[in-house]
Every structure is written in C-alpha cells, then in structure tokens.
Amino acid sequence: MKSFFGSPASLLRRWPGVEHMPRLYDRSTRRSEMGLVKLRRMLLAEVSGAVLEMGVGTGNNLPYYSQAASVVAFDLDPRNVRYAAAKPESGGARLLAANAQFLPFGTAQFDQVVATLMLCSVPSQAATLTEVRRVLRPGGRLHLIEHTLTGMPAVDWLLNQADRPWQWATGGCHLNRDTAAALREAGWSLLKHRRYSGGFMNVIVAQPEP
Ligand SMILES: C[S@@+](CC[C@H](N)C(=O)[O-])C[C@H]1O[C@@H](n2cnc3c(N)ncnc32)[C@H](O)[C@@H]1O
Question: Residues 43-53: pLDDT tens digits?
C-alpha cells in the first residue's frame, strides 16, 4: 500500500520520535508534567551561579530557575531549541544546539549542570558524564531528574520488554537504564538520591570524586 507520503514502511523508518517533535512532546506530556513540576521546582531551587542545562527539550525547566542562576541551555535537536526559545517563559536563558557527548564549552566553566529526563536518551551516559566532569568547576554539582529501572523484578521485566518500542516511539529514550549505577561507575559521589513513583523517578545530586 502506497500513499502520497510513501509506503507505511518508509513512514515508520522516517518517524523521528516524539522527543524530536516539540509541539507533540508538550501535548503528550501534559499529564505527566503535572506530577513532575514539583520535582523540577525542588531540584532547581538548589541551583545558582553559572548553570549549564543539557537536553533542554521544550524548555520545561526554564521557568523554575531563580534569579541567582545564569543559564546556558542546549539540546541536540535544533527544532527543540527553536521551540523552547520562542516560549516567553524561557526567560533569560541562552539557548543553543549542541551534543552532550562533545560539549562546546571550556574546562571548568560551570558551577552547576542540570539534566532532566535526558540521561535516558543520550547514546552514551559514560561519554556524557566525562564531558560534564570536564566543564564543572571544582566543587560543582550535577542535578538530575531521571527515570530508571526500579529494583522491582516484575516492573523491571516490563521496562526491559518495552524498551525497544519505546526507543522507537520517543526517538531514543531508554526505559531500562540504571543512572545511579552509571554515576558510581564513572566515579561520582551521590550526595542525594530520592526515589519517587515506586522507584521509577529519581532525583539525584552528584559530584565528581577527586
Ligand atoms: C525526554 S526529552 C527531555 C526534555 C527536557 N529536559 C524535559 O525535562 O522535559 C530528552 C531530550 O534530550 C535531548 N538529547 C538526547 N541526546 C542528547 C545529546 N546527546 N545531547 C543533547 N541533547 C540530547 C533530546 O533531543 C530531548 O530533547
């Protein structure tokens, strides 16, 4: 069967994923955002100084930074950057397109780095954490909200089963990562780790070990 848009197979191949369709992303996450806003506010209340936000997406965090934060925010996808920049609530953040695995910033340039629902989507958490360590000033911290495996075997089995179709639907998000373990393996100390939603959602503040 062929249509004006090509065959169903080619349409499936060309699907970029919801994370790369900013309007659809905002629409489809409206309900989950209601729960997340509390965590975003809590996380960002602790953030000040020169701040780098990675994987800014549609700019969901930008309204919650304090006046004490000078924010540079980036995303891999220029469509997301343009969409976030057009929102009046994006405030004074400087927005750009960049790849978290090859950061276009100097060493020790930021006091704090923020990422929310982003380390689930990068191809390599290890490469990203190496770059974050490089751009953080000594004593700087990484502030995260990330969904992960839960530690409950039945739930984690489901998350593992759903991982491949979810990656396709979202455009790269993994359901079965263990971000706390990845941080420890990469030589980070977890200063704070709180779990929500049955262990699925995590708020983490971490610091590189010397
Ligand atoms: C699920 S969205 C989260 C967006 C936003 N942080 C939020 O909390 O709503 C994940 C975002 O990470 C971005 N991303 C994925 N890999 C990236 C990379 N290597 N560098 C920068 N951004 C990346 C995607 O383009 C997407 O906008």
Answer: 999 999 999 99
Ligand 1 atom closest to the Cα of residue 99 is 20
- What is the fold, at CATH topology level, of the domain defined by 17-208? Rossmann fold (3.40.50)
Encode pLDDT of 106-138 as tens digits: 999 999 999 999 999 999 999 999 999 999 999
Does any ligand 1 atom lie closer than 6 A to the CB of residue 101?
Answer: yes
> pTM score > 0.90 for this model?
yes
The alpha carbon of 19 and the centre of ligand 1 are apart by a number of angstroms equal to: 7
What is the secondary structure of the chain as a DSSP string?
A: --BTTB-HHHHHHH---GGG-HHHHHHHTHHHHHHHHHHHHHHHHT--EEEEEE--TTTTTGGG--TTEEEEEEES-HHHHHHHHTSGGGTT-EEEE--TTS--S-TT-EEEEEEES-TTTSS-HHHHHHHHHHHEEEEEEEEEEEE---S-HHHHHHHHHHHHHHHHHHTS--SS--HHHHHHHTTEEEEEEEEEGGGTEEEEEEEE--
Domain ranges of the chain: 17-208
